[in-house]
Design brief:
Elements lengths: L4 E13 L2 E2 L2 H11 L8 E2 L5 E10 L3 E9 L5 E3 L12 E3 L8 E10 L2 E7 L3 H14 L4 H4 L2 E4 L3 H10 L1 E9 L13 H17 L7 H7 L1 E7 L8 H16 L7 E6 L4 E2 L1 H4 L2 E9 L2 E2 L1 H17 L6
Antiparallel strand pairs: 1-2, 1-9, 1-10, 1-15, 3-4, 4-5, 5-8, 6-7, 8-9, 11-12, 11-13, 13-14, 15-16
């Protein structure tokens, strides 16, 4: 029987600190030396879930490769009765086998100095970056030396398109977890705006102690649309403002936005797939799990493509 495959997207990002490239590879290598086993790398989040380095590879020519996995201790999985003869099958749950836990998400990274390739399979990039920051802290690294942020890289041709044709509307989409930044870290208009929405979500969730705070945030989508009233007939100051917001979405290193759609005055739609550098790859699925080796190989291929295209330092 043919091996089942699925398409996964690999995104090109960059690590920065104080508006300068940050060598994230060195931090990861230091953390790995400090925490050499899988158990050493486990970090527990406020929601009770645990993230750890499941697989690690270091290559002097291509940086470090990470496979992060998340699980929730004691979590059960839903089950069904095969070939049930009843009118309905009341589903149940089963715990993982003794000594095991169910996986609840993965992500994959290739880090070469400040260049970062990322692929999500249940763990968002914000969660992965938060994990690395918590791991560095767990390793007692100097606070100023371990600080970093990661942001997407824009396609310069699409940025020029927005500048030439203007912006008619912007639809911003994310999940509630990605916008839950501490107030001190809301440095941009976008972060402050979505941060206020996050504050309201937190106030609602505090009314129900049974809600798994972090999990519901990850599953809750947030959409905000900005649209000109009258398109080109709108006041010039308003047109300038919405263009500034569009440029912020593309370049803001603190932006929590994961998806967006920007429509130009001429009617062309710009989405992350065209504005942010990314590429899809077919990946084999073996016993329900993705092959981390295959994803790493795809990342290495994409990195080589970006380097040969002189994209890495644009």
């Amino acid at each position: 029987m043919a091996t089942r495959t699925t398409t996964k997207k690999v995104y090109y990002l960059r690590a920065r600190a104080n508006q300068q490239p940050k060598n994230l590879q060195t931090l990861v290598e230091t953390a790995r030396s400090n925490k050499p086993t899988v158990a050493d790398t486990e970090v527990t989040f406020g929601g009770g879930d645990i993230v750890r380095i499941q697989h690690y590879r270091q290559n002097s020519g291509h940086g470090v490769y990470l496979h992060l996995t998340r699980y929730v201790p004691g979590e059960k999985a839903p089950t069904l009765q095969p070939k049930a003869v009843a009118a309905e099958d009341n589903e149940g749950t089963q715990p993982a086998p003794t000594g095991k836990e169910f996986k609840d998400g993965d992500c994959y990274l290739l880090i070469q100095q400040h260049h970062v390739l990322f692929c999500s399979h249940g763990i968002h990039v914000a969660k992965a970056i938060q994990y690395l920051a918590m791991l560095f802290k767990k390793c007692d690294m100097d606070q100023s030396g371990r600080e970093f942020d990661v942001s997407p890289v824009s396609n310069l041709d699409k940025v020029k398109l927005l500048q030439e044709h203007g912006v008619r509307s912007i639809l911003l989409s994310t999940n509630a977890f990605d916008i839950s930044l501490p107030e001190a870290e809301r440095g941009s208009w976008i972060s402050r705006t979505f941060g206020k929405l996050s504050d309201e979500f937190n106030a609602l969730m505090e009314k129900d102690d049974s809600i798994a705070d972090q999990k519901i945030k990850e599953d809750l989508l947030v959409n905000v649309e900005l649209r000109l009233n009258g398109n080109t007939r709108a006041a010039q100051d308003t047109q300038d403002f919405i263009e500034d917001v569009a440029e912020s979405v593309l370049s803001d290193t603190d932006s929590p936005i994961s998806e967006f759609a920007i429509v130009t005055q001429s009617g062309e739609t710009v989405k992350p797939g065209s504005i942010r550098l990314q590429k899809g790859f077919r990946v084999p699925v073996i016993d329900g799990a993705l092959s981390h080796i295959s994803i790493w190989d795809s990342m290495e291929s994409y990195y080589t493509e970006l380097r040969q295209g002189n994209i890495l330092e644009q």
